[in-house]
Amino acid sequence: MSTAVNTSKKKNEAQKQKASGETDHRILMCGNEALAESAIIAGCDAYFGYPITPQNEVTAYMSKRMPEEGRVFVQSESELAAINMVFGASATGKRTMTSSSSPGVSLMQEGISYLAGAELPAVIVNVMRGGPGLGNIAPSQGDYFQATRGGGHGDYRTIVLGPSSVQELVDCMQLAFDLADQYQMPVIVLADGILGQMMEPVVLEKKPGRKLPSKDWALTGAKGRQQNIVRSLWLAEGALERLNYKLQGRYEQIQKDEVLCEQYGVEDADIVVVAYGIAARIVRGAVTIAREEGIKVGWIRPVTLWPFPSEQISKAADELRIFLTVELSMGQMVEDVKLAISGKSPVVFYGRPGGGVPTVDEVLDKIRQLTTKRKI
Amino acid sequence: MKTAFTRTPTYKDVPTHYCPGCGHGIAHRLLAETIDELDIHERTIGIAPVGCAVLEYDYIDVDMVEVAHGRAPAVATGMKRTNPDKIIFSYQGDGDLASIGAGEILHAGHRGEQITVIFINNAVYGMTGGQMAPTTMINQVTATTPKGRTSAGQGYPLQVSELLATLPGTIYIERCALSSPAEIRKTKKAIKHAFELQIEGSPGMSLVEVLSPCPTYWRMSPVDAMKWIGEEMVKVFPLGRLKG
Question: What's CA A3's distance to the chain center, in Å?
């Protein structure tokens, strides 16, 4: 187990390497601890959380590191309380976050809806596990619908980032805080049990941040100004409709400016595999082998799950190809893939639910089967 | 001529939406007076509940937030922990604090959060149309206890202040009433003391429970409602300092 102590030791080693002229700043960390340290680097003022597997390393790490940095850590009595503590800290203009896993994130949905309604920035990490219900503690991508469709009540969106490596998880944290502040809304980092638990070499460094709007709406005490009010109740005729149009305008801007996706080998491909997060790592392995076998296959990996890279996928479907969507679920993102393609190309699905993780061989077999169907 | 009485600046000069005879207006006035007398207007952040007082920010002129039903103590925790120099209060009704938010108030008290809570107990859900609250009296008729509350069917009225007083994390708990000018003056004193403790940085939560009239859903005249607090409610919710 990597601990905070080990981490600082590793940091020292990295610094020593630097002193001796070497330039490798990588340290080995598990995803949960790496995302926590990255949040600290991003300037997270306060962390509130409740223990749940498989993200317990985040709360434990934060309980040690946040006080070391003179920042706030509170172990809440529930996820319901955690997200409302986030709401409170955010309303005063602080950078704040919580993390949890699937059942805990379900409990947070009330608070996430209120954050969206009150136009408050916040970062929520979901290290997904198998469901429904208490499910299990194995990795899953079963919360895609919940994350990308709003999750709570009302007409709102959250930005959803789906990293596929520990390094990308680290990078996503800093991006998530910036996006939350820029668009004044909750941002979800959608990881899974593998990403949270596995150890990979990462570089922890502060990336140049975005130019962000000032938080003149924050509750800081009405000194030398009118009172500030943070609210989500709009009773007057048309007032709530106006708020929703305003949010919609923001969402359209995000859809235009913030889509992130990666693709490989799509130009000459007969088959395009679409996958995100840890599923994309498995797909990458399968596609590499398939290419060696002479199969014309490529992949598209959405990094932002909302906004979804519909344009990129639609463009790839302008030529007739078979699209294979691979997920650790019974098929959730595949609906967005189908919407993007709008019937231009066939879309097939392969996935395993409830903590089942497809192997490279399983995905490879699926690709091979499609090849014979397509008679390449 | 000497001015004997004026509107306190933090209480906005606007009509409220409260029913005739409602206690919220009095409680708001006491709160606003306290903020002005203690000169904390520029560093106070208030939390409005879900319930009749949801629009409290339209009347109390400090920075305010409106939060999910019952979650005010958790929101207050997030605010106070990140802003220890600010004065944080929540203003919650009996449905908000004693029912849906029972967990949040218990744990904020348990952690000893340095916040001030004004708990308005009128033994009924006002905003949704007079349904039973955890603090509804035995035999009290409400929209959801048409034959009156029975202990066998709905349990006894919940004495939250007594419960919270058992926690080491609470430093001051007092139950007051708005039933007469004398009791209103006592309520003011208690609210002021609760804020003073927070200003001094005393280690823990301060809470003032205020028995407040709801003539509309008690189906009484405002005068009878005031009498009912003093004659009936205090039997189950005795007035006085429970802690501190």
Answer: 23
Partner-chain contact B63 A227, CB within 8 Å: yes
Give CA–CA dist A194/A173, Å, rounded: 17
Task: Tokens 């919407």: give the residue.
Answer: A339
pTM: 0.95
Query: Which chain A residue has the Cα nearest residue B12?
Result: A227
Pairs of CB atoms within 8 A across A/B: 130
Closest A-chain CA to B45: A221
Q: How many CB atoms lie within 10 A of CB A218?
A: 17
Residue B4 forms part of a structural domain: no
Arithmetic mean of pLDDT, B144-154: 97
Assess A236–B contact: CB distance below 8 Å, yes or no. Answer: no
Chain B residues touching A92 at Cβ < 8 A: 45, 78-79, 82-83, 86
Query: DSSP state, B95?
Result: I
Over range B102-125, report the average pLDDT: 98
Tens digit of each residue's pLDDT (9 = 90 or more) over A47-68? 999 999 999 999 999 999 999 9
Q: Are strands A46-49 and B240-243 parallel, antiparallel or unpaired?
A: unpaired
Task: Say if residues A321 and A272 touch (Cβ distance below 8 Å).
Answer: yes
Q: Do B68 and A91 touch (CB under 8 A)?
A: no
Cβ A316 vs Cβ A129: under 8 Å = no
Q: Does any domain span residue B55?
A: yes
CA atoms B56, B61, B67, B70: torsion sign: negative
| Domains of chain B: total | 1
Tell me how close the Cα of B78 comes to any Cα of chain A, in angstroms: 4
CA–CA gap between residue A200 and residue A245 (Å, rounded) = 43
* CATH number of the domain to which B168 belongs: 3.40.50.970
Q: Which contacts qualify for B188-193: CB closer than 8 Å, 24 or more apart?
A: B188/B30, B188/B33, B188/B34, B190/B241, B191/B30, B191/B31, B191/B34, B191/B118, B192/B34, B192/B37, B192/B38
Query: What domains sit in chain A, N to C, each tagged with a CATH number?
Result: 4-202 (3.40.50.970), 262-374 (3.40.50.920)
Residue B48 counted as domain residue: yes
CA distance A106 to A194: 20
* Per-residue pLDDT reduced to its tens digit, A262-296: 999 999 999 999 999 999 999 999 999 999 999 99
Q: CA of A201: how far to CAs of A42, A59, A183, B183, in Å? A: 19, 21, 31, 67
Distance from CA of B86 to the nearest CA of A (A): 7
Number of other residues whose CB lies within 10 A of the CB of residue B239:
20
Tokens of B193: 């003391």
Q: Contact A89/B82, CB-based, under 8 Å?
A: yes
Quickly list DSSP for A137-195. Answer: SSB--TTHHHHHT-SSSSS---EEE---SHHHHHHHHHHHHHHHHHHTSEEEEEEEHHH
Q: Is residue B9 within 8 Å of residue B33, measured between CB atoms?
A: no
Q: Enter the ipTM.
A: 0.97
Range of the domain at B118: 24-243
Give chain A positions within 8 Å (CB) of B111. 74
Residue A4 has pLDDT above 80, yes or no: no
B125: which residues sit within 8 A by CB, 6+ positions away? B51, B95, B131, B132, B133, B142, B143, B217
SS3 at position B142: strand
